[in-house]
Amino acid sequence: MDFRLSPEIESLRRRVAEFVEEHVLPVERDPKAYDAHEFIGEAYLGKLREKARAAGLWAFHMPKERGGQGLGPVGMAAVYEEAARSIFGPAAFNCAAPDDGNMFLLNKILPEAQKDRWLQPIIDGGLRSSFVMTEPHPGSGSDPAGTMLTRAERKGDRWIVNGRKWFITGAEGAQHFILVARTSDDPRRGLTAFLYHADQPGWRIVRRIPIMGPEEHGGHCELLFEGLEIPDENRLLEIGDGLKVTQIRLGTARLTHCMRWLGMAKRAMEIAAAYVAEREAFGAKLADKEGVQWLMGEAAMDIHTGRLLTMHAAWKLEQGEFARKEVSMAKVAVADTLHKAVDTALQLCGARGYSKDTLLEWMYRYARSARLVDGASEVHKTVLSKALMKEGSEFWKWG
Ligand SMILES: Cc1cc2nc3c(=O)[nH]c(=O)nc-3n(C[C@H](O)[C@H](O)[C@H](O)COP(=O)(O)OP(=O)(O)OC[C@H]3O[C@@H](n4cnc5c(N)ncnc54)[C@H](O)[C@@H]3O)c2cc1C
């Protein structure tokens, strides 16, 4: 068992770290760089992206011949974590959600002939994309196969879509949409996935849903479909493969969330470490107090545990396995780790941690969504329980 990174991955990781330090953190520190939704303004992002691309630090998981770095999941785990030391890093390197998951999916399943149209512009950063699945009650949430109400009805060589979706990240301003809709009542193969472009008539954004945390570009939107027509050639995989498409996308996307969350958790502890190293109380530095050391030590240990879970799941994906339970374990654990690390860091920074003078309150509000997005923690634990019941002690087998 060798935990070392290959020289190529390590070199890329270092270059990303240097780029974040030199170019991204100064922008993050500039209050003028933030837009109305507390994320990086488009103009600032454009400049950072130009530099990142020129430095060859771009779309790490995409093939080199399409302008990416050709990294597999293990390399991504190392590099995404480094990119996410800054809250602006993932967007700057074009490895932020939801585009990174959408790129991964389209690269994996689209025929080559369709990639130039639907995938390449997302890799190039020329436009943004959204993944459209969740619906308001009583529609699709934790159980898309059982509860999805948005329907796509076939008419000749076209599909007509009617229904409602919500919490669609990035929808405002996105141009390429991956939509999952019901095409039959078959309990296993009732859903199908499609691609559509924002310019196609028959759909609209009803509202941008106000949320607790800061918002990525395009927010989290509620969408209404009233007769959107999609040509059959823009169907993804086969009719009835909607859940398969979803699993392919979410398997890796859940893990890239973990990679970025670990970078953010480390940054939170970096902020706390700087504070406790300087701040004095009762005649000693905070860092010398045992109670503070226990909090710092526990956070460090949790982050390391999360990194092992994430790297193990990444390694399994790299072997061509689905790594379903490994991804679920990482997703549950790292969502908790992020939340706890940020909470610990905030506590250790005292009143300053609760202020907007550090990023911790931004991170704290953001972190709460981790236990919900891409499957609530309880649902992932159910997956784990089912695997345990089926596999018994084989659940923990090596290799
Ligand atoms: C910030 C954010 C961004 C998002 N982006 C997107 C996006 O881009 N595209 C998209 O399609 N969706 C998106 N979502 C939706 C997200 O995927 C769903 O919130 C998630 O799948 C859970 O569905 P739900 O909210 O309908 O929860 P529900 O299904 O209503 O569940 C509510 C709660 O019930 C509990 N629960 C549910 N099932 C079980 C079970 N089997 N056992 C025990 N407890 C259970 C859980 O605690 C869960 O949180 C986003 C959500 C958020 C918060």
How would you describe this protein?
- With 399 residues, this protein is an alpha+beta fold.
- It has three domains: 7-123, Orthogonal Bundle (Butyryl-Coa Dehydrogenase, subunit A, domain 1); 129-240, Butyryl-CoA Dehydrogenase, subunit A, domain 2; 243-396, Butyryl-CoA Dehydrogenase, subunit A, domain 3 (Up-down Bundle).
- The protein contains 14 helices and ten strands.
- It has helices at 7-29, 42-54, 73-83, 89-92, 99-109, 112-118, 120-123, 144-147, 242-278, 290-318, 324-348, 350-354, 360-367, 377-391; strands at 129-132, 151-155, 158-169, 176-182, 191-197, 203-208, 220-231, 235-236, 280-281, 284-285.
- Helix 1 packs antiparallel against helix 2 (42-54) and helix 1 (7-29) packs parallel to helix 3.
- The longest helix is centred in the middle third of the chain and has 37 residues, at 242-278.
- The structure holds flavin-adenine dinucleotide.
- Flavin-adenine dinucleotide binds next to strand 1, strand 3 and helix 14.
- Residues 98, 131-134, 141-142, 167-169, 220, 369, 372-376, 378-379, 382 line the site of flavin-adenine dinucleotide.
